[in-house]
Amino acid sequence: MLIFLYRTLVFVLSAALGLIAADLILPGFEIVWSDWWGFVLCVLIFAVLQSVLSPWIATMARRYAPVLLGGIGIISTLAALLIVVLLPIGGIRITDAVTWVLAPLIVWIITALATVLLPLIFLKRRLDDKDAGRDKRSNSR
């Protein structure tokens, strides 16, 4: 259960980082920071949609369009972005066509990198904490 919660936290954090990166890079991608609760909901909904849509789109692609299998991550990111932007919570806006093309790519890349790197950062910190505790115990003896 703890591992599931840890993976969920990493996935939600990576989704938030991907959306924030798109906001910083693309002028047509806007996070409404004044409505921070809307952004938090968008991140949570986006993360859930990503985890649900990826396997479903992969199944559909395998069945009807095997050529699309390589782009499942980007396609599911686009679908999740589309749904989150259309929801009336108002946390994220995408205003132009170029941003609709580039945002899924940026969010997908950052999310993929964060999903790999965040566990390494957390594990390193946890190992450093264990080593510090071990050093304290060995010095007190």
User: How do the strands line up in the largest sheet?
Assistant: 1-2
- Percentage of β-strand residues: under 5%
Per DSSP, the total helix count is 4
Poorly predicted sequence stretches spanning 5 or more consecutive residues:
none
Written as H for each helix and E for each strand, in order along the chain, the element string is HEHHEH
- The coarse silhouette is globular
What Rg, in angstroms, do the CA atoms define? Answer: 19 Å
Q: How many beta-strand segments?
A: 2
Largest sheet: 2 strands, antiparallel
Average pLDDT across residues? 85
Distance between the termini: 36 Å
* Helix share, percent: over 70%
Structural class: mainly alpha
Blueprint of the fold:
Blueprint: H1 2-25, E1 29-31, H2 36-64, H3 72-86, E2 92-94, H4 97-140
Antiparallel strand pairs: 1-2
Helix pairs in contact: 1-2, 1-4, 2-3, 3-4
Question: What does this protein structure show overall?
Answer:
This protein is mainly alpha-helical. The protein is 79% helix and 4% strand. It has four helices and two strands, in the order αβααβα. Helix 1 packs across helix 4.
Note the main attributes of this structure.
mainly alpha; two-stranded antiparallel sheet; 4% strand; 141 residues; single chain; 4 helices; 2 strands
Quick rundown:
The chain is mainly α and 141 residues long. The chain is built from four helices and two strands.
